[in-house]
Amino acid sequence: HLASAALEIEDRVGDVIAEGLAGGDRLSSSLQGLDHLVQTANELSVFIGALSQSADESTTIPVSGHIRAIGLRSLAEALVGKAVSRAERSSGRGEVDLF
Known about the structure:
This protein is mainly alpha-helical. It has helices at residues 2-19, 24-54, 64-67, 73-79, 86-90. The protein contains five helices and no strands. The chain starts with a helix and ends in a 9-residue tail after the last helix.
C-alpha cells in the first residue's frame, strides 16, 4: 500500500516538475499525499514497535530468510537491529544519500 502510494506521488511530482508552474494545483495534491504517506509510515512504525515490546523474551521469530528478500540494505539492517543513522551512513564517505 505504501509503495503504491509513493509511486503515485512520485509520478505526480514528476509531472508537475516537467510542467513547471502550470502544475501548482497538482503539486498541492501530491504534497498532501506525501504527508499521508509519511503519517502512515510513522504509525506503522509505532505499531511494529509496540508489537516488539509486547513479545516476551522467549518469543523468537526466524527472520534471516525473510530479510534476504528486502532489497533496501538500510531497511533490512534496521529490521534486524543493525540500523545506522543517516548521519553515520554519509559522514566522511563522500556518498550521496538519495532519499
